[in-house]
Amino acid sequence: MRAIIQRTNTRASVTANNSVSGEIDKGLIVYLGIEEEDSHEDINWLSRKIVNMRIFSDNEGKMNMSLLDINGSLLVISQFTLYASTKKGNRPSFIRSARPPFAEHMYKSFCEHIREEYNINLAEGVFGADMKVSYVNDGPVSIFIDTKNKE
């Protein structure tokens, strides 16, 4: 499982099929990619890492606060392109991305796990849809996480 998380201090929204499917105020945008080998263990590890990551500023301007500390929200968007392979040629291959039925199940499981385990306001994109995401990347702060390469 791979994620790119980005911090926002303003309204963020995702639109699919010409209507807003999800929106949050202050919090994190999470682009989530899934491969066939992912499991519920990956969901548990990644969700815990995301909600506890100290990337929000404290009173001294240091990144020392987590999403839980600031009572922030999550906007989670499925992103199969996080498994793009650019090794050969100029057209990316997405062969490592999970097939849609499994990917959608894991995406929904990830979102539900966070809602249940952490009681966080979570908004979602529309799985498999062409989406438009609107927000300001505060900082900018963008962090890449891969559950198979825990750095």
Give a quick rundown of the structure.
It is built from three helices and ten strands; from the N terminus they run ββββαββαβαβββ. It has helices at residues 40-52, 67-70, 100-118, and strands at 2-8, 12-16, 19-24, 27-33, 56-57, 63-65, 73-78, 122-124, 131-134, 142-146.
Task: Spell out the key features of this protein.
five-stranded mixed β-sheet, D-tyrosyl-trna(Tyr) Deacylase, Chain: A, 24% helix, alpha+beta, globular, 151 residues, three-stranded antiparallel β-sheet
Structural description of this entry:
This protein is of the alpha+beta class and 151 residues long. It has one domain (2-146): D-tyrosyl-tRNA(Tyr) deacylase (D-tyrosyl-trna(Tyr) Deacylase, Chain: A). Helices cover 24% and strands 32% of the residues. It contains 3 helices and 10 strands; from the N terminus they run E-E-E-E-H-E-E-H-E-H-E-E-E. The protein has helices at 40-52, 67-70, 100-118; strands spanning 2-8, 12-16, 19-24, 27-33, 56-57, 63-65, 73-78, 122-124, 131-134, 142-146. The strands form 3 sheets. It has a 5-stranded mixed β-sheet with strand order 8-7-4-1-10, covered by helices on one side. A 3-stranded antiparallel β-sheet has the order 3-2-9, with no helix packed on it. It has a two-stranded antiparallel sheet with strand order 5-6. Helix 1 crosses helix 3 (100-118). The longest helix is centred in the C-terminal third of the chain and has 19 residues, at 100-118. It is globular. The mean pLDDT is 96.
